[in-house]
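Researcher: Here's the sequence for the chain we discussed earlier.
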Amino acid sequence: MNILVVVNEHNGAAQDAAAMLSAYFASQGIAGVFIPAHDIPIGTRLVDVVDTCDGALDFDLAVVLGGDGTILRTARILAGKRTPIMGINFGHLGFLANVSDPGVIPMVAAALAGDVTAEERMNLSVHVVCEGDDEETIDAIETGELAELDGEERMFFALNEFALTRGGSGAIVTFDLSVSGDHVVSLRADGVVVSTATGSTAYALSAGGPLVAPSYRGLIIVPLAPHTLLSRAIVTAPHDIVELDIPQEYGNEEVSLFIDGEALSFAHPVKRVIIRQGAIATTLLDYRKEPFYSKISRVFFEAPSLE
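Model: Thanks. This is the structure I predict for it:
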């Protein structure tokens, strides 16, 4: 049994929980690999932070001791691994994480025994084309054949969302939105969020997007402060591909791109972004087996029980 534990090292309670888990693993003969969340910013691969002399890169379970941000980082480094993630909340909102009240050891023991609910969550594959890329390079990036160019990452994983926003100049962003090859609209706005159903409770929600059940596989497109009376959120079909074209003649050279709240940087201005459903879903484990609608009622609406 090989377990990855990602810890919010800035949270004292999370550190205490990590110490308890370490002792528990030792008593049960379980191999545990502990890494701080600070060590896995965007662009980090699992092999960069896990010593393969201490353990393999394939884990039976990942335990996250932190908030939703720590879960998002963990999901990213485990992209494509099919490793189930048990989030235990030591953060703020913690919508993706389980409440820590039952105690970390009973919760992890339940996960190891299979006495939890596994939820398959769709994620995003984000592909970035920059000015100066030749046609062959563009084709390879758009199809996912090219993930890195000259040491610069061009393909990204997101569990919650991709966001295109104003850059350092503060100038409004002008972009063209297309879905599966069909032009939808040209917009001037503060930006746009392209979200998963999981991310519908995060940035997209704050921007006025809909709450969407996590089993949904389509994409959610939410403009940010659009300069129009006609803009609305769009919910796509599961296999639709979203394209954002960013013409440079409108002063878009300094637009900012974010993956799950973490900034991306490139040597040249961004020309186009392609967002599609990721190939392999992310598995989140739910200890309480709480229905989605009960959870949004409790977290967002604070509705009292009628029982």
